[in-house]
Amino acid sequence: MKFTEEYCGWPGAVHDARVLRNSPLFHDAEGRTDDLFPGQTYIIGDAAYLLKTWLLTGFKDNGHLTAQQIRFTHLLSSKRITVERSIGLLKGGFRKLKVSADVDRTRFLSKLITAACTLHNFCIYSHDEIEYFLDPDDDDGDVNDFVNIFANDNNAVRKRAQLMNLIC
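Below the sequence we write its predicted structure tokens.
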């Protein structure tokens, strides 16, 4: 439930996949995949993200998925729940992140988000009893709003298939 990486250089409504593509993490991972993600280590993302050897996504449901592909996608999705809960805790603990920022103060948004992530981690490390509220209506990152215009990495397709065959 702790944040180990955060990138907040994009104020406003920008799709998660675009933010990732423009982040230092993406560029580092593309250039040094074996160093940053050795062996069977991955970041797990939803179907809105590109499939990469270091970024594992489920299968897009085109109506022709096998039972094994459906099971694999469900398993990955269940692992992403922790990430969604972490973001919900962050927003619940620091309600200022959920409201629109004053236009004159947008230059401070990245600092506000970084500070909230740092305080969130500190509260978790300290076993703080802050009451968090999860917002069931939070629909950030709706994958149906994003059309991926880039092709998947063929090595990543093979790697995902190997992992699926191993665990499903």
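The chain has a mean pLDDT of 77.
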